[in-house]
Amino acid sequence: MKCYKCEKEIETDSKFCSSCGTEVKEKPNHVRFEDVVKTASKVWFVLGYVKGCDKDNKDSLSEFEKVLKNNHEDLWELYQEVIEHWKNWAKEGNNEKDKKTNGSK
Question: Domain-by-domain residue ranges, the chain?
């Protein structure tokens, strides 16, 4: 669990953050909203870059992944989640196509 104020890791059963001393309690709504905005911004950054990669040059995507993995751990984890979601979505889409092709629902 992370402290909502300083974002340092804290024990889940802690009553206060060991780094900044903030009382551990549920995040205020404005902090939760800020988290959503930060995450959304990161997602758009990743998706925008991937979309902008040269489709004929696989090295551009590989280079992006290497930089992301080595320098931006939180974005790398988010990128992996997005890729996994896309793979699952594509797999489900192909399963639906197979069902329609085979005449089942």
Answer: 29-102
